[in-house]
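Thread: Newbie trying to understand structure tokens

Hi all, I'm a second-year student working on a class project, and my supervisor (Dr. K.) asked me to get a predicted structure for one chain before our next meeting. I've only ever worked with sequences, so writing a 3D structure as a token string is new to me. If someone could post the tokens and maybe explain what I'm looking at, I'd be very grateful. Here's the chain:
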Amino acid sequence: MIHLAISDSHLLCAQWSVKDGRSILTSFSNKPLPRPLNVHGNSKSEIISVLNAGLHLVREDISFEGDKVYVTIPDHYCDSVLVPIDSELTENDGWAFAKWTIDQRWSSEDSCQYYGRSFLGDSQSIFAIRVPNLFIEPIKLAIQELGGDAVWMGTESSTFFGLYPELGCTVFLPSSNGYRYYQYSQSSFQNGSARYIKNQWKLHPVVGSNSDKKAFIGNLLYAGKFSEKRKTNFKGRRIKQLTAFAGMAVEGEILPKNVKEDDLYVLTAIVTGQTEGVAINFFSRSGLQKYHYEKLEAVPPKPKKVEKKKPKPKKKKIRKDRELLKPTLYIFFFMVIGLMLTFDQKPELFDFIHKFKLTESSGIVDKPTLEKAPVNQEKVAVPEETVPSYLIESQNLISIASQTLALLKMHRITSLSIGSGQMDIELIGDKIMDAPIDSLGDVVNYSLKQMSIDSLFKHGYLVKYRKKDLPVIHSTIAFSDLESWVPSFGSSFIKILDPIERENQSQTPIIIKINGKDNIRNILLKLTSWGRNLALEKFVFVSETENLSHSAIFYMSLFSPKHIELQE
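---
Reply by user tm_fold:
Sure, no problem. This is what the structure looks like when written as tokens:
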């Protein structure tokens, strides 16, 4: 097995095997990259070029052929959130909300994948993490081209969850003025920075609670040099200092002198723990991943059976020949072990050729542009340059949502998700679908699946909708008006989140759920003319075929009017 650790400056690669239930490190490579990686500064082609150059250097020391490969990337390459879920929202609603929250906090033009985990116990929350595509498919392909089996990829911190999959853990990484902490358990994922000041913990969470009692859960682990001063920070708490290569052996003098112990904690966690099924895997299908852990039972190696059977014939030999027989038996014994190991490995090597196929990665979707619609004579036209970009995109989304619901009213829409210039549509009908989907935009992907009822089929479409030039009004809306307006639609739900400060502009995320097809159409119509400071960023429509009920989730942002320049 192989661990490939990617960092800003180098690639660390280690290979190990398991003998008699113990892991033995057999090969090690630590190669500097041709130039440092800058995830947010370098282009995709530059990053891939640098990584490929580093992998070729690693290949000179370690062969990937037929081995399982585990890959880790630094936590700061990814963005993550933990959002609470109200009882009015389903798990799918919460997942869409979590992804939308990430995009609000950290805008990105890169093509990304979203992974997460649902915690529907006492916490009622959804964890989501966003990963650039350039760290998934290109690396997976490179490993396969080297003959390796890409089985798992995740963040460095998530590997420590595999050490205590049942109880969970919180790992502390020392910094110049405090700690960086990561908490993993079956009930929550949290992370942030912490300082111990005046005998109290001061937390600055990125994800999760600001209470140390709620954030520091499970086994406490310390990754670094544990000075006496830092030990006093954890007085009264049971904390374990991580040790490189604890629970494993090293074969010979294979470690380079420039390797620091801090670089070996993650490797040790992967070798001695169980990451698969426990930590989120970027090589698996994107979306919500379930926790799956099974205790591994120690099974004695097959060669041991041969060892127990061989001594019996010794009793039949004449005692004077025993000294001559010993070397012969040892030679025969090791020959059998070698043959059996070779035989066991052969099927894996042949299976690898047919087992893996490159998964198509989703490309970057172009942002929507705009189409002309009738203008109310009472409204004053605003020059295009004065119209905020978020409002232009919002009006496009509202228009295509209204158009889609109207155009497909005679068809059974089970789900409709619109955002970022594209929409996913699921329709139920006959095998041959006559819905005019191509009039809504360019069909990028299509799928067909037969349902349990023989005569019905589920049609899936991925559509990139086209630009439109739409009128924009001057009026704005206040929080109070919005809160009083939403309940007028009957069965509804509104949640206002904490504001986000970005580029001297205050942006407050809002999530609204509306039930009933007529109410959904009415709110879309209202949004076309009300609120220049209100932008719709994602629209999700769901129809339950069993009870014929319809609901929609509106993911919106309210921008502070004081930052909006209106033309007089």
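A couple of things are worth pointing out once you decode it. The chain has three domains: 2-288, 303-355, 384-563. The CA atoms of residues 167 and 218 lie 6 Å apart. Feel free to ask follow-ups in this thread.
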